[in-house]
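Reader question, answered in our methods column.
A reader sent in the components of a multi-part assembly and asked whether the whole thing could be modeled at once rather than chain by chain. We filled in our standard form and ran it. Here is what they sent:
COMPLEX SIZE: two components
ENTRIES:
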Amino acid sequence: MQAILQYFSLLVTTLLLAAAAAAQPQTLHVGPEEDYPSIEAALSAADSGDVVEIHTGTYHEHGLVVDKPLHIRGIGYPVLDAQEQGEILTIIAHDVTVEGLQLQNVGVSYLKDHAGIRVRQRSRAVIRNNRLVNTFFGIYLERVHDAVIEDNELSGVLRDEASSGNGIHAWHCENLDIRNNWVTGHRDGIYFEFVDSSQIVGNESVGNQRYGLHFMFSNHDEYHHNRFADNGAGVAVMFSKFINMWENTFEHNWGRAAYGLLLKEIYDARIEDNHFIQNTIGINIEGSTRIVYQRNAFRRNGWAIKMAGGCLDNDITENNFRSNTLDLVVSSNVNNNTFDGNFWSEYNGYDLDRDGIGDVPYRPVKLFSYILDQTPEAIVLLRSFFVSLMNFSEKVSPVFTPANVLDHQPSMQPLSL
Amino acid sequence: MLKILKYSTYDLLRSRWAYLYLAFFLLFSGGLLYLSGDVSKVVISLMNVILILCPLIATMFGVMYYYNSREFTELLLAQPIRRRTIFWGQYLGLAISLSVSLVIGIGIPFVAYGILHGPEIWNFFTLISNGVLLTFIFSGLAFLIGLKNENKIRGFGLAIVLWLFFAVVYDGLFLLSLILFKEYPLEGFSLAATVLNPIDLSRIMILLKLDISALMGYTGAVFQKFLGTALGMGLSLLTLALWAWLPVWGIQRIAQQKDF
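And here is the structure of the entire assembly that came back:
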């Protein structure tokens, strides 16, 4: 009996050990002097949950498919070079982590959106600390949930708009967390189409051809603490609802058709504590409704806010407008937007009761901005003496400018933002 | 001629007006630099002042000077000196003394601020040279008015109208025609209309130098393209030179025929 028991326990232990060995994630090493010379071989040999470590070197591989949950880790930034042949990594499994790789030279295709890393229809991907150089599309997410994209550096090569891809491209996704990436030289730095409940935090999107960040048909998203500089336009938010934007910097989006922020057909958004510095147009608004603009600083923009028709129930309060060439243009005569409690550096009213609020309402729309809206060529008279005279006389007795665009409580001092 | 030039320049530089003019520019540009500290903004503010004040002072002061020194001129004419030299000397004396006030008045604060080592030196240079050119153009026009009109009141009236036309009315008509014909492509027209008015041309040349030019959209692009080419730049400089030459030529022609 004793012997049988002993035998049995031995058997159980052996079985347990064997099971443990099988479940233990293995580490597969890829490199010129490691077990696997190519990444492709390692990927096909790996089991679910394994770690694939890619050592320093250059790998001329493309079309790699990750079809099981793996942790792919680069040691010393190994280079995966597609030599303009096509996509590099395609992820079609849940729970895949990719980190520490340098992916480059995907090559332009006009038929397929080739990408450095593509995640297709799976959840919980983590893409971290990678460098993507001259990838047509950088990171392409399609129908992905709960992915984390952080600390990546994406630099494209500036071509014309048609033959450039987007840095981080997300289509039909949910719960994305895009954090601390640096994107440059793409068509759109970050592109969202049908992406809901996601956040974009602390990224820097600089020198992209079209937009630093682009939302289309995406709802309930938020982006904050990002910096958008020197893009064709900083951020475009189009056909979206419930987007919150705070503490971003829109800087030096300066050119003939450049905006800091372009809003088109968006509803119920909040734009708070942002800085708009030296943009040709700070915020360009078209057909957007129920939007709150609070505590933003507009400094040295051409136009701080340009509002086209069809904008209703916008609430522009407690912002600082300082040294902008033109503070506000409102195209339509019908508007129920409020412009109260802002600081306007060109306000020269007085404050007799010393409560910090000017006693005379301020009219932010000048006659010249009104004329410019009708006849753009009149811009050649910018800063001419006649225009100053005209603005002055209009200010004294308004005839043309919309009568109801008024700040009833202009602040005497710049608000501390 | 040099002697006359010397005398009239010294005479003018000694006068109270020249000091006032100088002091104004000193205080104004110094104050602006001190208060704002942003050279690009100061250049824009100064541009507005220079574009209005230089032509105004040059015309008014020019007419005034001409009428005041009439007796001296007649005395000179009694001497065996060529008329052309006399008027040349007086005109240049006026224009140079005003330009000196302008250059020193704006130059000192900017140099003290350290413009010579900054990247904004070219903007500053454009500003100053446009101011000087405008001074030359408008003091020439003023002299021409003085020569043509014996009647002082008429002369002053004409000088005011001249300044008012180029500084204000022209732009008003310009804007009006832009609004009236807004259905048509107006780039060519606005380019021509700008080049024809020295004040507008100076303004555009300064604005395009500053990064504010991006505000000017498509029209600005057309201007930039025009002024960016050697042909465009040459043509605008030529127009300014033509404007400076036109009154001088008028002065010469009158001086040849006029019977005092």
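What stands out: The first helix of chain B runs from residue 2 to 14. Chain B has one domain: 2-257.
Send us your own complexes using the same form.
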